[in-house]
Write a structure and sequence with these properties.
Layout (H helix, E strand, L loop, with lengths): L3 E4 L5 H15 L7 H12 L4 E8 L2 E13 L4 E11 L7 H16 L5 E3 L6 H9 L14
Parallel strand pairs: 4-5
Antiparallel strand pairs: 1-2, 2-3, 3-4
Helix pairs in contact: 1-2
Length: 148
């Protein structure tokens, strides 16, 4: 299986938008925030100041993406990455594609001098939790909350 993992580029906006729609609406069954908002998000990430997106390309088609946001940890007193998204199309889950995309995020974190990479997934996403444990992830001691 031949594929390329690379930073997202301006030419990827439309294909990446379709992939993000599959992720937000299809996989997580959340409402679509709107194409304009997604395009603004992608543009922000293309600037690589607040975060970065990686894509997986196979035969000219995007089959997955990952998003790292840059933030700071008080506990580390240092900058860290937050992997907010790791998504590959269903047929690529539990394959080298998914593992290599995760490892690319980890390599980027290390090469850019971030203290560590952290991530979140839905409490119901048991498959992802097993994947993260297989990749060496350790469940943290913190409970996430959000408010609407």
């Amino acid at each position: 299986m031949s594929f390329i993992i690379r930073s997202a580029a301006a030419d990827d906006v439309n294909s990446l938008t379709e992939l993000m729609h599959e992720y937000v609406v299809g996989f997580y069954q959340n409402p679509w925030p709107g194409t304009e908002k997604i395009h603004n998000l992608i543009q922000t990430l293309l600037e690589k100041q607040q975060g970065v997106q990686f894509v997986v390309e196979q035969e000219g088609k995007l089959i997955g993406f990952a998003t790292l946001y840059f933030t700071i940890s008080t506990m580390k007193a240092d900058k860290i990455t937050l992997m907010n998204d790791l998504f590959v199309l269903e047929q690529y889950r539990d394959t080298e594609v998914e593992s290599q995309l995760f490892l690319e995020c980890q390599r980027y974190t290390q090469k850019q001098g971030f203290a560590h990479m952290t991530w979140i997934t839905s409490i119901q996403n048991n498959r992802a939790q097993l994947f993260f444990e297989k990749m060496g992830g350790v469940r943290g001691n913190w409970v996430n909350y959000s408010i609407i």
